[in-house]
Amino acid sequence: MADDGFEGLDLNDAEPQRPEDTVEAPSWARPSSDRDAVRARLLDEITAVCAYLFPSGYVELPKGDVFCVGDLSGAKGQSLHVELRGERRGLWYDF
């Protein structure tokens, strides 16, 4: 790649151009204790939540760390995984 002398600008930490024009986030976008409470409760019951949403799914044994189901429509299979324990609890991935 040729060096064209362009260094670029990193504006990630730039201050707002006109602070008086900043807009407060709408209420639905602000942190909410209700939302946090619902999230915590769902994570506490993640295995039951997954079983309710995906009756064809199953907990992968012997560890029981992952709930498996075919896809988001609930088909049988093991393509979609939901983490049941640890820091990644509640995260899902489909491959």
Q: Write the H/E string, N to C.
A: HHEEEE
User: What structural class do you assign from the helix and strand content?
Assistant: alpha+beta
- What is the overall silhouette? elongated
Report the end-to-end length measured between terminal Cα atoms.
Answer: 35 Å
Q: DSSP strand (E) fraction?
A: 5-15%
How are strands sequenced across the largest beta sheet?
1-2-3-4
For the secondary structure, the number of strands is 4
Count of individual helical segments: 2
Account of the 3D structure:
21% of the residues lie in helices and 14% in strands. It is α+β, with helices and mostly antiparallel strands. The longest helix is centred in the middle third of the chain and has 12 residues, at 33-44. It is elongated and about 55 Å long.
